[in-house]
Amino acid sequence: MSSASLYKTFLWEGAYYGMIAAVVGPVTGYICTVFVGAATTDSLELVAIPIVPILEATVISILVCLIATCIPLKKIARMSIVESIETVE
To answer: What share of the chain is helix, strand, coil (3-state, %, to 5)?
Structure first.
């Protein structure tokens, strides 16, 4: 595996984590909002889905996951893959 393909693999992994968080986050957030509203009013009522904040949070979560994967990639780019496999830490 070349270092370029390793770099792409890590970036795609970060993008996938961001996409999963972008799907799971709004769903669980909406469920929590409905339950908190039900606890305060003693009745279960569905609220309007906030589309714009969800889209903003989606973009932010994907960017944060990509940035979080870029930090270790800078360290990986400086080291030799063969030497790091041979070295026992």
So the answer is: 80, 0, 20
